[in-house]
Amino acid sequence: MSFNIFDFLKSLITLTVFDYLREVWSGSMSPGTIELILDVIGVVVVSTFCLLIVIFLIWLERKVIARIQDRVGPNRVGGRYGLLQTVADVLKLLTKEDIMPSGADFWAYNLAPLLTVIAALLMWAVMPFAPGVIGVDLNVGLFYILAVSSTSVVALLLAGWGSNNKYALLGAFRSVAQLVSYEVPMVLALIVPILLARSMYMQEIVAAQAVPFILVVPLSALIFFISALAETGRTPFDLLEAESEIVAGFHVEYGGMKFGMFFLAEFISTLFMSGLFVTVYLGGWRFFGLENLEVGSWAIGRLLALVVFFVKMFAVYFVFIWIRGTLPRVRIDQMLNFNWKFLVPLSLILVLTVAVVDKLIPAGADTFYRAGIHLVSNLLIGFVTLEVLRRVARVRRQAEGESSPPAGDAHHDEHASEAHPVPSAAH
Question: What are phi and psi for residue 97, nearest 5 degrees?
């Protein structure tokens, strides 16, 4: 089959360009060579997209937070609409001098930023952008994501330890405590959609959502979203870079592009978590059968599904920005108490309830009937949780009220101190 520009453009629009290239190259190359070239092209395309989209994400975040907080700067600096501000920041990071502190471990110090970015990019390999548009549809797709995301913990430890700075090391310990802690409720929350879809294939999880899982198990979606905020170091869990706590965290000794790579990985991971939330809880690229639309001989459903996926993903990313521009930072003790004393027990109860309820539902039950039963059980767990929190808060308020001195006693003490002043020390 010879190359035809019209057929190639048609394959681009219908997102079947790899199938078209296989047919064109089948006569001149072996199947193994063709697959290798296509894999390299896929990796380059996805990686380039992830790296370049960060420039837009930084600009978008500045614009949105400026509107939320009624600030002028990010909307006026850098040319029209502030478009050149992010470009200037990137050029500044690329041209800064590369400095390494004396006594730092060369390999650990320099590998940490690279490992962080590599881990953030590797997770996109199993992201289903549209029907059939996925890097590798692994049978353990969700498990792969959790395994790769855990490697960021090693990168942070390398950065803190390799910098030969006690403040960087303390910041790394704090960051690792946060990431390891919130991985537990995240894993438990993701077990719920796995139980409902009966698969860890990313495409099959999307296909199983005739009713989006956010409407079936909203508690699981909420727990996952909160855990994703902590895992990506976003507000109110942005202690990974809290300069008011310990200098600036694990990356205090980094400058230039090495410093920028940590934040590059943060933006890539945040966008990925938005896409993962869409895939697992919002039906992915599905939208009322639009993904199957055909116009004549043009099957444009895949392209529309891709557009739907990106619209959903950026809508979730907007919520990440909204929270960052609204909520204050919490303390490390508050963050860990919230995780281990609230999120983890709630996640365990949720997983147990979903597993038992799903087992009790008849095998041939209607999809909407099954979704309704799970929704009722989720709402019941949520109601009981709120009631327990309300009662605990009331008991604490009563205990604090009994322990504080009465207003009359304080008034009496004030007058007593005026009548019998304490003699000042002699000079």
Answer: -65, 140
Residue with tokens 């170091």: 233
Per-residue DSSP letter, 386: H
- How far apart are the C-alpha atoms of 385 and 366, rounded to whole Å? 29
- Whether 99 and 256 have beta carbons less than 8 Å apart is answered as yes
> What predicted TM-score, i.e. pTM, was given to this entire model?
0.90
- Residues 212 and 278: their CA atoms lie apart, in Å, by 9
Residue 170: CB atoms within 10 Å = 17
DSSP state of 424: P
The b-or-e profile of 59-69 (16+ CB within 10 A means b, else e) is bbbbbbbbeee
> Cβ(171)–Cβ(246) under 8 Å?
yes
State the DSSP code for 200.
B
| Domain range summary for the chain, segments of one domain joined by + | 1-93, 96-396
Which tokens hold the place of 317?
A: 């990313």
339 burial via Cβ count (<10 Å: 0-12, 13-18, 19+): buried
SS3 158: helix
pLDDT in tens, 300-336: 899 999 999 999 999 999 999 999 999 988 888 899 9
What is the chain's Cα-based Rg?
26
Q: Please tell me whether residue 298 adopts helix, strand or coil conformation.
A: strand
Percent helix, strand and coil across the chain, each rounded to 5? 75, 0, 25
Find, among 348, 292, 274, 338, the residue nearest to 124 by Cα: 274
